[in-house]
Fold:
Amino acid sequence: KEELFPGAKALRGRGIGFVLSRTYWNQGYMTEAVEEVLRFLFEDRGLDFVSCSHFIWNLQSARVQKKAGFHFYCKVKMTTTYGTCEHGYLNLISKEDWQRKRSLALSPSNQ
Structure:
């Protein structure tokens, strides 16, 4: 959906998504997985930004994205695999924001 990022033509970015069985909710698995995917995309693939969206009502996904450092970008309408239309939020994290968050987490005062 390049039309959502008109000023990003010179930047390299990708979108990610995730689903986790309810059995494994609230155990930190998804937060850990998203953080590792971000590390891979920024360090190994050299991306400039990553996007991720969630339905407005999906507070668990919103929480995972916030913990990973994503910031609100815009409201979106998404078509589900069932053919329904859902409203949601598209969030972004830049490589710079990711590096800043990571350096704060790794600083001795946070250990």
Q: What stands out?
A: The beta strands are 13-16, 49-55, 71-79, 85-94. Residues 29-44 form the longest helix (16 residues). The chain has a mean pLDDT of 90.
